[in-house]
Description:
The complex is a heterodimer of chains A (515) and B (617). Chain A has a domain at 288-499. Helices cover 72% and strands 3% of the residues of chain A. Chain A has helices at 2-20, 26-49, 87-106, 115-134, 138-147, 149-159, 169-202, 209-213, 219-236, 245-252, 255-280, 282-308, 313-334, 337-368, 386-397, 404-416, 421-446, 461-479, 482-501, 508-511; strands spanning 67-74, 79-85. The mean pLDDT of chain A is 87. Chain B has 617 residues and is mainly alpha-helical. Chain B is built from 27 helices and 2 strands. The model of chain B has no long low-confidence stretch (mean pLDDT 89). Chains A and B meet through helix 12, helix 14, helix 15, helix 16 and helix 17 of A and helix 5, helix 6, helix 25 and helix 26 of B. Chain A: This is NADH-quinone oxidoreductase subunit M.
Amino acid sequence: MALVWLILIPFIGGLLCWQGERWGDQPPRWIALGTMLLVLLITLGLWWHGDYRLPAGAEAEAVSWAIEWRAVWIPRFGIEVHLALDGLSLVLIALTGLLGVLAVLCSWHEIGRRVGFFHLNLLWILAGVVGVFLAIDLFLFFFFWEMMLVPMYFLIALWGHSGSRGRTRIGAATKFFIYTQASGLLMLVAILGLVFAHYNATGEYTFSYAALRETPLSDELSVWLMLGFFFAFAVKLPVVPFHGWLPDAHAQAPTAGSVDLAGILLKTGAYGMLRFALPLFPEASQAFAPVAMGLGLVGIFYGALLACGQQDIKRLIAYTSISHMGFVLIGIYAGTELALQGVVALMVAHAFSTSALFIISGQIYERLHTRDMREMGGLWGRMGSLPGFMLCFVVASLGMPGTVNFVGEFMILFGSFPVVPWVAAIASAGLVLAAIYSLLLMQRVHYGPPRGEGRFADLDRREYAMMLGLLALVLLLGLFPQPLLETSGATMHEVQQLFSDAAAPTSITELMGGL
Amino acid sequence: MTLLLPLTFLLPLAGTLILAFSHARLGVRGSAWVGVTSVGLAALVTALLTYQFIGAPRAYEMTLWRWIAVGDFQPTFGLRLDGLSLTMLGVITGVGLLIHWFAAWYMHGEEGVTRFYAYMNLFVASMVLLVLGDNLLLLFLGWEGVGLCSYLLIGHYYHTAANGWAAFKAFIVTRIGDAFLAIGLFLLFHELGTLNVAEILQRAPEAWSAGDPTVQLAALLLLGGALGKSAQLPLHTWLADAMAGPTPVSALIHAATMVTAGVYLIARMHGVFLLAPDVLLLVGVIGALTLLMAAFAALAQTDIKRVLAYSTMSQIGYMFLALGVGGFEAAIFHLMTHAFFKALLFLSAGAVIVSCHHEQDIRRLGGLWQRLPLAYAGFVVGGAALAALPLVTAGFYSKDEILWQALASGHGGLLLAGLLGALLTSLYTLRLIVGVFHGKPGSDNARDAESGSGLAHGLPLIVLALLSTLLGAWIEPPLGAVLPGPHEGGEGWHLALEIMASGVALAGIALGAWLFLRRQAWLADIVSHGWGAKSWRLWHHAWGFDTGYDRLLVSPYRSLVAWMRSDVVDAVVGLVARLAWWLHVGLARTQTGKLRLYAASMVLGATLVLVAMALAA
């Protein structure tokens, strides 16, 4: 039942926030904060009491979950409300709770219009995300996948900023919506295709993850279905030709929106690949791996190069996300246990460091009223402790050892080197580019001659606490990543088993019938 | 007693944390006090460890915690103390303490002292981890940590954009090397299944025969990392610009410790390099080329710190040369003496710079020897050690050992390069000392120079000066158990070489004295036109590497970034939306509301369908 509450609490909290607006602007903020803290505490409780380690001697024969909850929904088509939790989803839900708290905190002063409705949308996004991480009925998964979309649209469209060069917040919201919607429809087609294939083989309709995993598929069909899933997740991650929505959405969204987008929504893409694309179609994924890793490389370099050229501080950070997600993609399709564990670490790391950078750009915006780096420079001595924190997170994002970003990136590279040495070697060049864009950010914002006299307001207690908390997490997990890795270990081991058990890689064109 | 070992990095780290969270409550004096004390305590711990090690010279390891454990990948936070790391530890904390102390005088009255000491302490902590780490991943942590501190400290005076760019350049160029090192780590782990240094050295000979392509590649990748950090060809361009930082930073990071990390890395991984003789030879050749390239460049600099920077590059070139001929002990010995005398030279330069109101141009200094006696003494002693003045200086013994190793191993070419380098070293050293301390003051800044005073100013200079003499050479690093022994050869040859090297050094000094004291006008005439001017320009710009890299790499990169700025791929994908829009506009045009047009198009459509059906039938 705890799993249902994890979804219901933010959902109900959102409604309360909306109604709470009647009593002023403060109640919705406090309600939202309390709600997300509750979600966070529940996940931490689940983590504390549960056992997510690999059971001794267990093989990846049956799907095993730490906690499971199911109820009948539409029996005619075998659709259930089926939620389940394992180490991977637990990590990501904890992340959702934490970033939810931060999203509420960083909007405290930023959002002044329709505060209640804002928090309704914010909390419903998070409810949708938690649902995505928990659902293992494919229909339900699709339901939540679409559900997180709509409130995000409103968040960008109603509380966003207008960007430079005629980029409007409505435009950004629409672009985000269309990209995600179109890719989601492809996934729906793939889900239905899989269900019908299962029906043809067994004469039974089901959307259950465990059942569908056993569906016998022809090689060609499995490739097409896998591509349907991959496409949806690739848009969310994002993978390079499908990334167009991300810079606009990030740059135009309010800070809380950027935090949620970068911190959690992108992770649903990686989660989808790890949970569905790989386990449902191991052979096809194995064959597709070279293409996926190639796209990952393209993403690393493309994102990094574009980040260097941006003038809007939030757009710069947005493009760095694309670069980091390139590493994630390579790690997922390298498929060794080390690389997959690295993916988990990097997802967490990216959530922390990128959210922190977005929050910092929000704080800079509140003080300077600009996000254009051409109007910054020499801010180091004028902003109290903000530049110091920014330095720390910039350094984390370039993968400095001691931060969890390093753990993630290097585990991915160590893990993929035995499989694809060249990909790992080329990806290492991304480390140099990461240094270039990260330090450019510092250089443009904080170094150089100051543009004016006087000091800006130092961080207040709320802002300071957010930064310190995130920094502590980045460093703690960078030096002691084991608790994190042990939580996700069993799940990743299972994925790796499936992936390596798949037949020796055939080329993707061969599987598709020599197209 | 072994529990003391982690304190060597925990104490400076604590200093960093205290300074970082002090919120400017400590003030200048308080910050300096915290910064110096934390390193001082670390030096004290090192002294205790040394005492203990001398009593029982055994290497030992201690594992603090498991860092990551996934499958075979089990890097730990493990420390290892042996003769090599103890030597490095002594240099880092000992010389580090003196420089921290001196900085209390140097930085007095400047803004950002808290920040300065926080970074300096963090640097010491990272450098200690670099040399104590028992596995390559922990070494890499220290390696990147010192790089970060170097970046931060070069950019200490952030108000000037150029300093920020110098810092940027230093980080990026070394990071290129680091990427190679990282790939080297991936390769070593994949091939040997471990990152632990001792295990690598043990398993490497079992896994590979000498000259195996894989081990050559691994050595080459490690070398890439070493080249970046130690500012050797072709990744050397950052070091001269790094002089933008405060002078104590140049002394600590860019002379005594961090830039020698590459030497340490190769010495530490000697087992891998010995299996890759071609790469080892390449190390020596790169060292020889760098030492000559940088020595020529040092001859033609006008900034007092840039002379010293190129000199550092050149001296590290000697260490690489030593590594390349298999003289690992000689390399580390020179690393140590170089740390003493180069730190002395930099601190003396710092004393001159502060005394002369931040004047760094040699041409605008001059005639300072009476006004700044202590700095002059520092320069003379340090310069003598740098030029390897026979018998009385520490530099003589270490450089002689390097040249002897080159001869004993039969590398005549490298030996010649070393000797030619020695001549150049004497020349540029003398040029520097004469330019700064003799002749007439070149500016008002030099005319009213005020000598520094106080313990923080005097004591570090005096101690380092003592260490730069014969006394420093008496310190014998306990390397026997860690590194392969030196090449042996006939004593007669050795003596002959010593005499020859001494002769070269003295000849260089004599030539320099004659040129720079007696023939200044003639020299100025030569460098002002014709070939003299051309080579001056070439050497002044250090053989034009910067320009070349700018044209070859930086400009294309910037153009690429500028070209891609508007996200080409997004624009292409956006064509779909554009197409839909055009279709919309086009079709909307047909909706005119004119009944006749609708009827006509219906008739036309129906006819077309009927014709198509008839044809199909």
